[in-house]
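Slide 14.
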Amino acid sequence: MITPSAKRSIIIELHKQGYSNSKIARLLKTLRQVVSRQIKRFKKVGSTSDRPRSGRPKTFNVTRAKKLIRMRTKRNFKRLIQKMAQNLDISHTTARSIVRKDLKLKPHKF
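Slide 15: predicted structure.
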């Protein structure tokens, strides 16, 4: 699989060589709109590098928290999410979303 930045570079190189947008799209097996958008962006910005992301950066390591929560739930699946979040020094809503969305676990009432 090609990374987005590599795909962007390939699109620009093929465009510089004189290939049409539809030909580039066929070669890379992507949509013609994607190709034209990347070429338009290159002409406007002048580079293929990623733009800085908007929004506030994460304040803690999510992958570390996922790993710790996974280990703790394997050890004791009856453990309360609020207590686990308190021990990890993260909010209980963050811990709950990690458990539900990332670990795909569902609450069970005993």
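Speaker note: The helical segments are 4-16, 21-28, 32-45, 62-75, 81-88, 92-102.
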